Structure to design on (168 residues):
């Protein structure tokens, strides 16, 4: 007997349980701590050493620095907002159902192949890479919690057809 193994989005009760379990997990604690530390480190860099670094760049590199630092801060604010929503669920200030609303979820980001200028300070590039990795992890967690496996592993069309033939 062949099993069609259809995957579907989790039920609201399953999703709520998954969101609540994640918010109470050690994984969340580590991710939250890492995210907030990265926000603080990046802010300190951009206000201090980064400001000095940017003043020594050529005009085109300084424009690229400004653009990349805006992308960096935007990405970090998205991560921090998402983490704060999960913490609100953990502390009972928000229901898991409310956290499922699209306005609290992470959106896919456009992938930039490389920073926009070769002269960018290595410290800025390192913060960009770290923030991209953290964003990707948070996005993966978001998709797993709120969408389940349905978005990650589409149903096998052959097994679906065989399952329907078997049922007929």
């Amino acid at each position: 007997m062949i099993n069609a193994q259809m995957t579907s989005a989790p039920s609201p009760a399953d999703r709520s349980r998954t969101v609540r379990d994640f918010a109470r997990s050690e994984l969340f604690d580590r991710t939250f701590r890492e995210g907030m530390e990265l926000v603080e480190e990046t802010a300190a860099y951009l206000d201090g050493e980064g400001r000095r670094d940017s003043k020594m760049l050529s005009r085109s590199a300084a424009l690229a620095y400004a653009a990349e630092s805006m992308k960096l801060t935007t990405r970090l604010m998205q991560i921090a907002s998402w983490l704060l929503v999960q913490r609100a669920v953990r502390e009972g200030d928000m229901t898991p159902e409310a956290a499922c609303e699209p306005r609290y979820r992470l959106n896919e980001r456009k992938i930039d192949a490389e920073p926009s200028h070769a002269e960018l300070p290595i410290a800025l590039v390192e913060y960009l890479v770290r923030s991209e990795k953290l964003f990707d992890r948070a996005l993966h967690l978001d998709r797993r919690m709120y969408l389940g496996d349905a978005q990650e592993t589409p149903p096998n069309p052959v097994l679906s057809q065989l399952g329907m033939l078997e049922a007929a």
